[in-house]
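Table S2 (text version). Query chain:
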Amino acid sequence: MKKTFALTHPKKAAARVVETIKHDVKKYIRRERNKTLPAGTDFWDFDCKFGHTEQEAKVIHVKEINKCIDEAEKLELPSLYLEILAKPATRAPRAPRPDFDFDEE
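Corresponding C-alpha cell output:
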C-alpha cells in the first residue's frame, strides 16, 4: 500500500477521517497477514514509511503507524503519506539461555 491520505473532508470531522485511515491500515495489514506464506518463511514482515509527503517519508516500525497518524492530526496537516509493503521473513534463532543451577544455595 502506497497511499496519500487526506486528513480534511468538507463534511466529516477530522477525528472521523483519522479513524477511517486507521481502520483502512489495520484492514490492509490483517489481509496481508492472512495470505499464505512462501515455503521456508515464518511470518509476514512489513516495511513502513511515513511522512507529510512522499518525498519526506521516513522508515518507521509497524507499531508506530497509529502514533504517527495521531501526530499528523495534532499538527493539523492537510494530508499524510503512508507506505506499507509486506515481505515474507524468518525469525532469528534465540540466543541460548545460560544454565542456571537452582539447587545451589
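Notes on Table S2: The CA atoms of residues 95 and 101 lie 19 Å apart. The helical segments are 14-33, 65-74.
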